[in-house]
Recover the amino acids of this structure.
């Protein structure tokens, strides 16, 4: 599959497995899974046919491993704006995690901390390099350090998705170290 088609399929999957499953008539189960045949039939019926090979390529070739396939079902690994329970166990995070953003967002983050916005969780990266790539999607990145060890000690829950993204409900301002 060529790179442009791979990107289009990946974006289509993200939109419908994370945010708008009802738009194409699929229903995610409580854990975010949908049967592959149901997804492929719905995509075809809505004018965006995807072959099984293309689906497999989009899942395997996604640089951020956004999707998981188990048996004959698929789901997004994290980033849902629709209510799902990914069934992730609570885990102790490393001492520090990172969040990539842009300068325009820093004043709001200083006031309110990191909020999930339209998603279920705040997404944190295990290293500065990943956070830099995430932050660069919207402009010149600003990398925040999160004292996740102190947060965990204070009772905040952390989860780690299948693709290594760290998830938490909210990061209060006292746990964030701003550059400069």
């Amino acid at each position: 599959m060529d790179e442009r088609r791979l990107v289009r399929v990946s974006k289509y999957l993200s939109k419908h497995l994370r945010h708008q499953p009802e738009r194409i008539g699929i229903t995610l189960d409580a854990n975010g899974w949908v049967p592959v045949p149901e997804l492929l039939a719905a995509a075809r019926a809505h004018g965006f046919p995807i072959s099984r090979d293309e689906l497999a390529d989009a899942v395997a070739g996604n640089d951020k491993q956004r999707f998981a396939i188990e048996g004959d079902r698929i789901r997004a690994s994290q980033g849902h704006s629709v209510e799902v329970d990914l069934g992730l166990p609570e885990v102790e995070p490393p001492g520090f995690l990172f969040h990539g953003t842009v300068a325009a967002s820093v004043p709001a983050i200083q006031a309110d901390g990191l909020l999930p916005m339209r998603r279920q969780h705040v997404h944190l990266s295990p290293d500065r390099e990943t956070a830099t790539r995430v932050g660069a999607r919207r402009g010149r990145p600003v990398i925040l350090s999160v004292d996740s060890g102190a947060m965990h000690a204070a009772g905040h829950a952390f989860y780690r998705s299948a693709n290594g993204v760290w998830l938490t409900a909210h990061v209060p301002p006292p746990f964030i170290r701003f550059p400069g």
Remarks:
- The chain has two domains: 3-76, 97-177.
- The domain at 3-76 is CATH 1.10.10.970 (Arc Repressor Mutant, subunit A).
